[in-house]
Amino acid sequence: MVEWWDGLSMVSKVLYCIAVPATLILVIQTILSLMGGFEGGSGLDVSDTSGLDFHGGSDISEIADADIGGPDFSGDGGNPADFSIMSMLTLQGIVTFLTVMGWSAIVSVGTGTPTSISIIVGAALGFIAMYGVARLMHASKKLTESGTLDFRNAIGETGRVYLSIPESGHGEGKISIQLQGSLLECNAISTVDKVIQTGTLVRVIDVRNDILVVEEEY
Fold it and tell me: Do β-strands 211-216 and 173-179 pair in parallel, antiparallel, or remain unpaired?
């Protein structure tokens, strides 16, 4: 091992000193990400909204649309809809660049390619890999953003009354409805002057402050 190391050129030694630690960090990052993915949702039922108050306090849709006076992230990667060079300058992106650049240059040098060309090739491949990782992370953020619960998506959908809905103006009931891939229990009101009994099939016709407005489905 010592003889092999001593037989390497200074450039190869530097490249190994870059590639090996970066690879170890990348492996650790990947393992931690997988562990977080498996454990993060343990015991959590995202479809259970029975303890949530959809009609009190703030309107989620209003908060989402509000201008809170914060910094403008337009074009700097802070908004999931944006992508820029700054999106690439993350720890994962840099580690990916160093890993791919290091090993690519080592292989290139080992095949007899001039050192300068090997480093250029390695840097180019590392940049491509870093760009690819940044694009994947960007796409993941956009998927998360698009998965945010929006009650307006319930308009036109059918559900079943879970707790009877009083006549118009006399309070709220609850319905069970399939929304964005999850079965939810949501607060609901009626616009008719009669009680809609438990078990009745209803259709959502409007949304008011995250409260579903329903009518019987005939």
Answer: unpaired
- Percent of the chain past pLDDT 90, that is, above it, reads 7
Please name every residue paired with 204 in a beta bridge, in sequence order, or none if there are none.
214
Q: In angstroms, rounded to a whole number, what is the distance separating the alpha carbons of residues 101 and 35?
A: 27
Question: Residue 188 and residue 33: Cα distance in Å, rounded?
Answer: 39
DSSP letter at 114?
A: -
User: Tens digits of per-residue pLDDT, 137-149?
Assistant: 777 666 555 556 6
pLDDT one-digit tens code per residue, 167-199: 887 888 889 888 777 788 888 998 888 899 988
Judge whether 175 and 160 are in contact, CB under 8 Å: yes
In 45-122, DSSP assigns E strands to none
Q: Residue with structure tokens 């078990």?
A: 199
SS3 166: coil
Structure pTM? 0.46
